[in-house]
Design the sequence.
């Protein structure tokens, strides 16, 4: 399968960078899947979304993403998030407890963290 260069970046750090075969993200217009050779596009990421990157090596990189943009160019894909956490970094118990006390934005973030970590809300 054809490959593309992908970067997953949050304001505070680079979370992942490398070659991938696909990227799936949730935008304000709906879920979008990107494969190599995709037409250029710019999408606004939803608050409390999940991004999935299938690496060239076949691994799945999953992250909870909170706002930002997805940019697809001829050079690759950039996911530029306001905040993001890789699935293996998420404290599931903390995310569950945040659901009980959260306002609407924090609730969306907690649900995304649980989904990215492979747990239901």
Sequence:
């Amino acid at each position: 399968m054809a490959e593309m260069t992908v970067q997953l970046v949050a304001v505070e750090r680079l979370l992942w960078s490398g070659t991938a075969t696909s990227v799936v993200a949730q935008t304000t217009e709906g879920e979008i899947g990107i494969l190599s050779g995709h037409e250029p596009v710019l999408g606004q990421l939803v608050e409390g979304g999940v991004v999935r990157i299938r690496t060239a090596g076949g691994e799945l990189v999953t992250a909870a993403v909170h706002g930002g943009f997805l940019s697809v160019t001829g050079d690759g894909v950039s996911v530029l998030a306001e905040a993001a956490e890789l699935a293996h970094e998420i404290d599931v118990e903390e995310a569950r407890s945040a659901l009980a006390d959260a306002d609407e934005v924090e609730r969306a973030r907690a649900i995304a963290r649980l989904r990215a970590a492979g747990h239901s809300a």
Observations:
- Residues 104-116 form the longest helix (13 residues).
- Residues 63 and 86 are 4 Å apart (CA to CA).
- The radius of gyration is 14 Å.
- The first strand starts at residue 4 and ends at 10.
